[in-house]
Design a protein that fits this description.
alpha+beta; three-stranded antiparallel sheet; about 35% helix; elongated
Length: about 325
């Protein structure tokens, strides 16, 4: 390990501990940094020493959608930018990330990025020579220098319909199975948002499959059930565990979860909201696709569920920005508070 301090600390060994060699019990006011030396300590030490002393004091993430035509595919992408302020400057000079060699290393932040960042980022930010032998659960870590790190994230188009053309035999087999499932798998009486969400999304999926197969009779049977079940939770609040707004943390939670941290899989402490409400949102999207008039009274409530776990703006007065999504790792986390 490399330990740096400012002001300087003289260390001494005390058994299995390192302790300051100064006056016992005296207070230290300063900054101590600890860095692992990786798999190649001799080479990594000099690099780490170059960047010692700079650390982040504030950070933010911004997104900007870019409509591109890369490889003539018409692919859409979003620019994801990590912006850091540090103790050594205001972090506002965007030129640093594009020409880091021209800036004093003591004015740069040293950090690591994951493989999916390296694949899509401006390569001038990568540190050369790099630090060797650093790994994480998500793969090898690559050192970068600069207060601003940006990469391009492709945005996949997602539709409700299957992409592959079905053969007549496949269509017939699906139709037979749909008739069985539509008669047996439509119970949406679960009293908690998780199991209700799973059941309403299942019925919505059957409804969508019926649409793709041109089975208007099954659609006619499932549509009213789907609408009625969603109304019970989103507008009528006639279910046994109504959703309510929690003003303490800014979110939509189940009534039981609000008073009992262990109820509904920790739902009242914001655990798994992107799972629970994702089922609601999928069901609402299918309903809106085929019955926009029936969906219209549910729109405001459905938007609140979306804002609960994925509010798209930091200026929302009622919900936090991107509650579950982790822009660094590139996925959401189930943990709540």
């Amino acid at each position: 390990w490399l330990i740096t301090s400012k002001p300087e600390i003289k260390w001494r060994s005390d058994g299995s501990r390192l302790v300051p060699a100064g006056t016992v019990g005296s207070a230290y006011k300063g900054v101590v940094q600890l860095a692992h030396l990786g798999a190649d300590p001799d080479s990594n030490l000099s690099v780490l020493q170059r960047y010692a002393g700079t650390y982040p004091t504030e950070g933010s993430v911004t997104y900007a959608q870019v409509n591109s035509d890369r490889n003539s595919t018409g692919e859409r992408s979003a620019n994801v930018v990590f912006f850091y302020k540090t103790n050594t400057d205001a972090g506002g000079d965007t030129a640093k990330i594009y020409s880091p060699a021209s800036v004093s290393p003591t004015m740069q932040l040293l950090s690591f990025v994951l493989p999916h960042h390296v694949d899509r980022m401006n390569k001038t930010a990568l540190l050369t020579p790099g630090l060797a032998g650093y790994r994480s659960a998500k793969g090898p870590l690559t050192a970068v220098a600069g207060n601003i790190i940006s990469y391009s994230q492709p945005l996949q188009r997602v539709g409700l319909e299957g992409r592959n053309r079905l053969s007549d035999a496949d269509r017939a087999r699906l139709q037979r199975q749909l008739s069985i499932d539509a008669a047996m798998e439509t119970d949406m009486s679960a009293g908690d948002p998780y199991f209700f969400g799973k059941s309403v999304a299942r019925v919505a999926r059957l409804y969508q499959i019926a649409s793709e197969l041109g089975d208007s009779a099954t659609m006619g049977a499932l549509g009213p059930k789907l609408l009625g079940a969603l109304k019970q939770w989103l507008t009528d609040q006639s279910n046994s565990d109504p959703l309510v707004y929690d003003s303490s943390w800014g979110g939509v939670v189940s009534s039981k979860g609000l008073v009992d941290p262990g109820a509904d899989f920790g739902q009242g402490r914001y655990n798994d909201h992107h799972f629970h409400y994702g089922y609601f949102v999928y069901a609402g999207a299918v309903l809106a696709r085929h019955n926009i008039n029936g969906f219209a009274p549910l729109r405001d409530a459905m938007n609140q569920l979306l804002r609960d776990y994925a509010a798209p703006t930091a200026t929302d007065a009622f919900f936090p920005y991107m509650r579950h999504f982790d822009p660094y790792d590139g996925h959401s986390w189930a943990a709540g508070l």
